[in-house]
Amino acid sequence: MGTTGIGTAPTTAELMETVAAVGTAYFQDFAAAAAKHGLNSSQAKALKSVLEPVPMRALAGRLGCDASNVTGIVDRLEALGLAHREAAAADRRVKIVTITDEGRSVLERIRLDMTRAQAAFDSLDEPQRIMLDRLCRQVLPLLAVQDRTTP
To answer: H helices within 10-87, ranges in order?
Structure first.
């Protein structure tokens, strides 16, 4: 990481590396927790993405993958009883994916099983948590990838 001293602001490159390291560690914890429930990280991320009903094409955009890949992911979630898909009322060609009650339960257990992330964030005091939340909410919109289904 960077060679910044106390009170010295990190360079943009150093800050990017630090944020990337935190993101990587978080993702590894998420993937390990998902695996405990028979899911790979893409399946668990998809489950989180369908807390509200989502068209398959929009789900592909949220996951950053091709629509054809989403079919296999949703097939697995359906086979496990964690999500279901049905035709949209307005256009029967459009398939909508929705999380099931069992899916919500598994997603909650995955969050609880993320023990490293839980411990890391629990180590922050209230002002630190508020500041981290504010900073993340400030930069997140600038980093967000637009849903590929939007014109």
So the answer is: 12-35, 41-49, 56-63, 67-79
What global pTM score does this model have? 0.81
Query: Strand locations in 29-134, DSSP E?
Result: 54-55, 83-87, 95-99
Q: What is residue 51's DSSP assignment?
A: S
Query: How far apart are the C-alpha atoms of 29 and 141, rounded to whole Å?
Result: 24
> Residue 19 to residues 22, 26, 34, 83, 135: CA-CA distances in angstroms?
5, 10, 22, 32, 12
Distances (CA, A) of 16 to 29, 74, 98, 122, 135: 20, 33, 35, 23, 13
Nearest to 107 by CA among 38, 25, 61: 38
Rounded to 5 degrees, φ, ψ at 75 are: -55, -45
pLDDT score recorded for residue 145: 65
- Non-local CB neighbours of 142 within 8 Å, separated by 6+ positions: none
